From TrEMBL:
Its cofactor is Mg(2+). Keywords: ATP-binding, Kinase, Magnesium, Metal-binding, Multifunctional enzyme, Nucleotide-binding, Thiamine biosynthesis, Transferase. It comes from Paraferrimonas sedimenticola. GO terms for biological process: thiamine biosynthetic process; thiamine diphosphate biosynthetic process. Residues 14-260 form the Pyridoxamine kinase/Phosphomethylpyrimidine kinase domain. The lineage of its organism: Bacteria, Pseudomonadati, Pseudomonadota, Gammaproteobacteria, Alteromonadales. This is Thiamine-phosphate synthase.
Amino acid sequence: MSLKPLVWSIAGSDNRAGAGLQADLLTGHDFEVSVSTVVSAVTAQNSSGVSAVDAVSLDTLSAQLESLAIEQTPKAIKIGMLANAEQLRFVADYLASLKQRCDVFVVWDPVMRASSGDSLAGESLAASAKALLHVVDLVTPNAGELSLLSGMSVNDGASLKAACQAMLAQGCTAVLAKGGHWNLDGEALDYYLDAQQELLISSPRLDTAHSHGTGCTLASAIAATRAKDYPIEDALILAKAYVNQGLRLAEAQGEGTGSVAHAGWPTNRADFPRIESAHSKIGQWFGIDNNWPALAPFASCDTLNLGIYPVVDSLEWIERLLELGVKTLQLRIKDKRDAEVEADIKAAIELGHKHQARLFINDYWRLAIQHGAYGVHLGQEDLLETDLNAIADAGLRLGVSTHGYFELLRAVQIRPSYIALGHIFPTTTKDMPSLPQGLARLQRYADLVREYPLVAIGGIDLARAPSVAQTGVGSIAVVRAVTEADDPALALEQLESALCHSHENGNPSTGNGLDSRFRGNDGIARGNEPVCHSPDLACHSHENGNPPTGSGLDSRFRGNDGVARGNDKSQREEALCPKD
Ligand SMILES: Cc1ncc(COP(=O)(O)OP(=O)(O)O)c(N)n1
Ligand SMILES: Cc1ncsc1CCOP(=O)(O)O
Ligand SMILES: [Mg+2]
């Protein structure tokens, strides 16, 4: 059995290898999943059009599905072209029964025409689509396909939304209406609707004729990322970034137009889309219904390196940490009325100022403003219920929690003072609704958003601190690693040292002792904000003359080779985190 998550692609063969099964295989490879294929039809096509479509028999379709299912069921299925109504009904029945046996995410790209304009499957397909709509988790029509499937004409934002709502009413779980054929203010818009939410995701339109295979590629990227347990919002973001990257790099094929390129996991920020809010021009045109704020930037923390960042729940802890020289910290008191916490919050803020520390108040933003805190930390849900303009106007800093690509991009759009990325490892401090991110995802987020101070949080202890620091984040937030330490002062010193040591050794990707986040796009160092010598005291224990502990790691966490090892508990928990 493969260690990579398994995706099935049920689709047509494209002998150009730009769309269909061939595009799905390439996409799966780029997203590091295994793909097994089920051929629905063999097509003959080139850049001038489709010259033949030969549907396989239902027996052959069934035999392919059964031969795969006997060995391993998939985590996700991408359905592309189905060549006739019989195939469509057969696949619908098959999926209904498969879904009773395993938990599988199914995305259907309802291919009815190739981008060349040739009809691939005939419009009778629409009539048989209802059965399939009931068993898929997401359908990804373009405007024409949406119109065909919903039976409604689609010519503007309002009619597109109405058609998507009609699809949900027909029993479909979610719709992603692709806007590749729309051009509003030079933007390509995708509209997502399910029973809980609507999202409008936009990117500048890329002016290329080489777009063969974009629909297949988008749907298979969604299947691959869902198979890797990315939430649907993140899957939509990654898939759109992947297609944008592919369009940017697409080249002509032979005499005619070419296919979207398959160029690896998307990492270029310019390929990532925007998430439109009700405030944006496009959001308003579309009548998008959300209350995400649109804001001027928040006050800066004046450093990318906030250092070791303890998060504690009492005034006593705040006092103790400030006396130990901690310069970034948070008061996190949960679920009390303002009147119950005001005195402690006020006292903590005063102490923070006295020690010239960056004290963030979690949740109680009104009290933070009222008593002039350095900053406020808010979670994603809090963002929707807070007067962010009041925080910005009062000159307070804002730290924002994020738990994946979607939230990260949304956070960037409000230009906060820092961005927290979590939870990286399993934690018992807080019940988390999301899965732990693991180091590989943290690395990708850190590479994507280099201009913000980044804070990693969740399950980080001394054993894990060096590998977390290696990702390039400038800060590690901890609860238990300090509050449950036998000697919190020593724990702080060791954690600081682990963070500093890793920064001193430079970001592994630059290999020259300088963190890549201090470099411009040209690779030239932007300023002298080296991690361990900044006035922010991120590495105060060294500067205060405390004996450096070499790597900053307790010898209990090193092997004979001097390489950091996790303790048993850390290693067990790490096994639960995604490795991609
Ligand atoms: C530095 C830092 N990062 C994340 C959190 C979590 O904040 P939030 O999502 O608002 O959850 P609660 O802490 O309020 O439970 C944090 N507090 N600090
Ligand atoms: C508040 C919070 N938000 C995300 S993880 C977390 C708790 C981190 O605590 P610990 O460092 O003890 O795992
Ligand atoms: Mg909160």
